[in-house]
Amino acid sequence: MSTCKADHCPCGQTCPLQVALKRIGGKWKIPILCVLSCQQGIRYNELMKKVTGITNTMLASSLKELEKDQLIRRVQYNEMPIRVEYFITEKGNQLIPILQPLALWGME
Predict the structure, then answer these.
(1) How many alpha carbons fall within 13 Å on the CB side of residue 28?
(2) Cβ contact 50:35 at 8 Å
(3) What is the DSSP letter of 8?
(4) Which of 12-21, 30-39, 73-82 has the lowest mean pLDDT?
(5) How far apart are CA 82 and CA 10, in angstroms?
(6) DSSP codes, 39-100
(7) Over 70: is that where the pLDDT of 11 sits?
(8) Which domains does the chain have, with CATH numbers?
(9) Is the distance from CB of 45 to CB of 62 less than 8 angstroms?
């Protein structure tokens, strides 16, 4: 049995778990990371199709937050028309083995 009490975080004032969950929390960030972990770069519209149910606004804001947290990388190619692709970073890839047992737990 855990000794953690609801009114006290054993991690101290800045809980590392809360920091991690803030970066990957929400309905869409984990599905986006999962799609990007299986691709070698993907364009916005293709990503939109693969993340079923996400709106244009939510995809755009989630991508910006994931990029800010250095979990994905946005690459814009100087072509006409302009082409943009998204890639998972090494930091983002480090999350995948952590998320796999959580996915297995969710299937039970």
Answers:
(1) 19
(2) yes
(3) B
(4) 12-21
(5) 49
(6) -S-EEHHHHHHHSTT--HHHHHHHHHHHHHTTSEEEEEE--SS-EEEEEE-HHHHTTHHHHH
(7) no
(8) 16-107 (1.10.10.10)
(9) no
